[in-house]
Amino acid sequence: MRLTLDIRPDLATLMAAEIAAGERAVTAAVREAGVGLKLGWRGQITGAGLGPRLANSIRSEVFPKAGVSLSAATVVWSKAPVIIGAHDAGPLIRARHGLWLAIPTPAAGKALGGRRITPAAWERKTGLKLRFVYRRAGPSLLVAPAGPRSSGTTAAQIFLLVPQVKLPKRLDLARDAERAHDAVPELIVGNWAEETS
After folding, report:
1. Using an 8 Å Cβ cutoff, are 105 and 87 in contact?
2. Are residues 176 and 41 in contact, defined by beta-carbon separation less than 8 angstroms?
3. Beta strands 131-133 and 101-104: pairing type?
4. DSSP readout, the chain?
5. Given CA atoms 93, 97, 98, 103 in this order, what sign does their dihedral have?
6. At what angle do helices 8-47 and 173-196 cross, to 10 degrees?
7. What does the pLDDT look like over 183-194, one tens digit per residue?
8. Cα separation of 8 and 6, whole Å?
């Protein structure tokens, strides 16, 4: 009597099930890491006082968009990359077409739509001409003239003039990205254990 056992079909079924579990675990881990990074960046932005609107510009997406894969990936980005990048890098800002950057004081008010006003827009809005005042110590000024058409008897400081401004670094996006990247292996193991338990 001869008995032959062929376990290959069972092994193939087992391997296919393990690969499927791995695909689900990797995709879930990558999704968790991406969502965690998105929330981390949003938290940094609101924590830095940059507001919820800018924080909500951070988005994430998992690939493949449908299904699961051992090669799953996530992308986290901002819909306002220039603003986010500036607060992440802390760049030096110089005047683009002149010698000075005009920084409005509270007396300048706002432009239409609540935006920051420029000297030309201020002059159009008020009908007054700004006067340049050079100062050796401290920033130079653009002032509104004193007189009957102005709101007071002394010149009001409307804009501070500086040659450059160093934007403070308020974000550290690379730190959170590195943490999210380093967390992926542990997330995969945790999700895989759930799949096979």
Report:
1. no
2. yes
3. unpaired
4. -------HHHHHHHHHHHHHHHHHHHHHHHHHHHHHHHHHHHHHHHHTT--HHHHTTEEEEEESSSS--TT-EEEEEESSHHHHHHHHH--EEE-SSSS-EEEE-GGG-B-GGGPBPPHHHHHHHH----EEE--SSS-EEEEEPPSTTSSSSS-EEEEEEESEEE------HHHHHHHHHHHHHHHHHHHHHHHH-
5. negative
6. 150
7. 999 999 998 887
8. 6
The rounded distance, in Å, linking the Cα atoms of 55 and 89 is 17
Question: What number of other Cβ atoms are within 10 A of residue 15's Cβ?
Answer: 10
Tokens of 40: 């981390």
Q: Which residues contact 146 (CB under 8 A, 6 or more apart)?
A: 152, 153, 154, 155
The residues that bridge with 157 in the sheet, in sequence order, are 143
Cis status of the peptide bond prior to 64, with omega within 30 of 0: yes
List the one residue out of 178, 187, 170 whose CA is nearest residue 76: 178
Strand partners, 133: 141
Q: What is the 3-state secondary structure (H, E, C) of 117-143?
A: CCHHHHHHHHCCCCEEECCCCCCEEEE
Q: Which pTM does this prediction carry?
A: 0.69
Report the alpha-carbon distance of residue 129 to residue 83 in Å, rounded.
Answer: 32
Tens-digit pLDDT profile for residues 108-151: 888 777 788 889 999 998 899 999 998 888 889 999 987 655 45
